[in-house]
Amino acid sequence: MQQKHSIDRRAFLKLSSFTGAALTIGFYFPALGRETAAIVTASTAENLGIALNAFISIDKNGSVSILNHRSEMGQGSYQAVPQMIAEELEVSLDQVSISFAPGHQNKYGNQITGGSSTVRGAWKHLLRTGATAREMLIEAAAKIWSVPKDECYAQNGEVIHRPSNKKLGYGELVEEASKLTPPKQVVLKERKKYNLIGKPLPRQDTPLKVNGRAEFGMDKKLPGMLYAVVERSPHFLGKVKSYDDSAVKKMPGVKHVIKVHMPVFNTVREGIAIVADNTWAAMQARKALKVEWDTTGFEHLDTAALYNRMKEDLKKPGLSQRTGGNFEATFAKASKKVEAVYETPYEAHACMEPVNCVADVKEDRAEIWGPIQGPDWIQRDLADRLKIPIDKITVNMTFLGGGFGRKAFTDYTTEAALISKEIKAPVQVVWTREDDMTQGPFRPGAMYECKAGLNNGRIAAFQTKMAAQNMGHQNPGADKTSFNDSITEGLPEPYLNSIDHYSFSDIPTESPIPVMWWRSVYSSTNGFAYESFIDELAVAAEKDPLDLRRAHLRDERYLAIIDKLEEITGWKSRGKNSGWGVAITECFKSIVGEAVKVSKQADGKLKIDRIVAVMDCGWYVNPDIIKAQVEGSIVMALGAATTHATNFTDGKAVETNFHQYRMPRISDVPDMEIYIMENEEKPGGVGEPGLPPFAPALCNAIFDLTGKRIRKLPFNMNEV
């Protein structure tokens, strides 16, 4: 096996410096919004004054290096991207290494790793780039041999001449290939001819994480680097009134104590940074700091007050996002009417790796390292705040120990940059677990008022009003009269094609608590309300839950999932001594159906016996990654449904660590069965769509067994 290697960005660019020592190609978008990317060599890009969106470079040893513009936070892009390119390039993954691109949207396009978008956003471009490099290498070999190109083919890093069986390795061809113009059209392989795509190949990042070579944010070290922690107000809008650092400055290792400001949407969070020569010294010194906080001028809400406010908000007229027909008139005449209110909690992101960042800010430039989901966003943000040209801001991605949306925010990177600027030295800012859990932003809690009218066993009218904080309303200059455009997120579109009269609206709840994306965003709360309510409608209509969905989800992909769930679970022959629940949601262009089986143990407590998930993500790369992401999504959904939530007292987060914010343990999680649908659809997301259907499927199963309807999360399985 060839020795795998990785290269840093500077080494990669040196390798790609147009000396003829490598074949380097990539793609760029000639016009804004144009779907077809142009593929060019590095030398052509330099001559045209453009920067490539993604790079492939093959050196004289035949080693393939890829510069990836997206982050790796466990979702598998570090494996999926090279697996796609290697398929069309006809190389073994043993020959491929991957490095992270720095943040720069003008060069690399949209780099935000979110919305399960890495594969579905770039799959065709990555396949074309690999295929283009392959065709250039074949053409180079044909020229060297003076034979027709169609007599040659590529396989396992070599070009082979069919009639003579002569072979040339890619490394021997790169110099000649680098002189060629990339073909404008290439033929991509048919799926049935794939050797790598669709196969459960081992992940490239696993060995790095096992042997300790993978670099996470807190692994980054710079010469002369100092270490900082920050004491921040436990109230989200609290200000520093005064502080006494006399004891702190006498402690070993302490170098600086400074006041810092960190932007949080349209507000500013204040704190006192303790900078020392190691993290432990800074953490110990923080305990000696005395701060008096000004907590006047804003609400000190607790959890009960928040949800009472949402309940009152539901009585108000909603901001309409989407309507069809005439809900009110149809509902009034319906033969059966069903109404329900659902409640979902605030949640912390609770990544296993707390937030951290390394910053080195000079007068005319700045460089950042860390677990970052949106490097291009952070580059633009820092350029604006530091008043430094954007090309002088370098944002480097490390591996992330989980992100779930939290590490796409710009607060922690700005804080680190401002501290570095103040102390005139590189600094690593580390958030403790307590900082990470209590400071937010959080997933917003929500309440849903659902109404529906039934006629002849079918849904004739459907209405939902949501009361929750609107994430977009926190931004500076936001239009507070705008509706939340994510109210139907997670709801299968075919429902709206089969229900003539519907209405979806929201009432933005006001609160000082910062909120933002959390795995699957609003789908994580919408899905619980919608699919729980669909189950209630099935009961009211005296229909089997799958049959009611089959009657309204008249779409080939949905019907295939329903049939698959029915087959796997033995739905039609299920026994009476166990409860089965089902839910189907659509999230980021993927459809997931999940079924849960529950039973009562001898002591009367509920037990989850079986979880079945069917994922339709269309064209896909690696089935093992898909299964791992669905399993991880279900565990996260299980926690949010049954074991943890963020609560507030006196305007402060209550849960400070995992002794209060209890995560599911291995013993809490039953075996899961994950099935992937095969079809020719375009790729959808994988990292998030498995989360929304679990909670409603579980609660529907509990109703099936016990007759008790759960409309509020989280709930205690032992108390049902």
Q: Could you characterize the architecture of this molecule?
A:
This protein has 720 residues and is α+β, with helices and mostly antiparallel strands. It has 3 domains: 9-211, Aldehyde Oxidoreductase, domain 4, CATH 3.30.365; 223-297 and 355-430, Aldehyde oxidase/xanthine dehydrogenase, molybdopterin binding domain (Aldehyde Oxidoreductase, domain 4, 2-Layer Sandwich); 303-346 and 442-719, 2-Layer Sandwich (Aldehyde Oxidoreductase, domain 4), CATH 3.30.365.10. 30% of the residues lie in helices and 25% in strands. The chain contains 20 helices and 28 strands. It is globular and about 80 Å long. It holds the Pfam family MoCoBD_2. InterPro entries: Ald_Oxase/Xan_DH_a/b (IPR000674), AldOxase/xan_DH_MoCoBD1 (IPR008274), AldOxase/xan_DH_MoCoBD2 (IPR046867), AldOxase/xan_DH_Mopterin-bd_sf (IPR037165), N-heterocyclic_Hydroxylase (IPR052516), OxRdtase_Mopterin-bd_su_IorB (IPR012368), TAT_signal (IPR006311).
